[in-house]
Specification:
It is a single chain. This protein is α+β, with helices and mostly antiparallel strands and about 130 residues long. The protein has four helices and five strands; from the N terminus they run E-E-H-E-E-E-H-H-H. The strands form two sheets. Strands 2-1-5 form a three-stranded antiparallel beta sheet. A two-stranded antiparallel ribbon has the order 3-4.
């Protein structure tokens, strides 16, 4: 199985750098790339502290470029528990909520249990609704 990495630093309010480091598997990668290709951007809020973060509409969850890791690289990340701010769980949680709110999927549907084709159709339906 392939594994991927998001590694990026974003400056917050000219006060500090926020480091995003997250590893994930091919299923997450494929769905993330479907979203990047279909939606292009996903602006929302992201907080990394009690009152530190990007306000609603300031943070693009699809602004990251995943890179493929070798098996050895992935094992090293896991061995040393290397990670920074992690965004994918928040992103997919928010996406699920939007798709369910619009009636594209059911509330109890799991984005990772549906086929990639069904996932892509759902994201495309959502994108079409946004552009109406």
């Amino acid at each position: 199985m392939k594994h991927y990495l998001i590694k990026c630093t974003k400056n917050w309010a000219d006060e500090c750098d926020v480091h995003f480091i997250e590893t994930f598997d091919e299923a997450v990668y494929n769905r993330y790339m479907i979203c990047k290709n279909v939606l292009k951007h996903w602006y929302d809020s992201y907080y990394f502290g009690t009152n530190e973060g990007w306000e609603d509409g300031e943070f693009d969850y699809l602004d990251f470029t995943p890179i493929e890791l070798s098996d050895s690289e992935y094992r090293t990340f896991k061995k040393f528990n290397v990670h920074g701010e992690m965004i994918l769980q928040d992103f997919f949680w928010n996406l699920h909520g939007c798709l369910a709110d619009e009636g594209i999927i059911k509330e109890d549907d799991d984005l990772f249990e549906m086929s990639e084709e069904d996932f892509k159709r759902a994201v495309e339906s959502y994108e079409s609704m946004l552009n109406e």
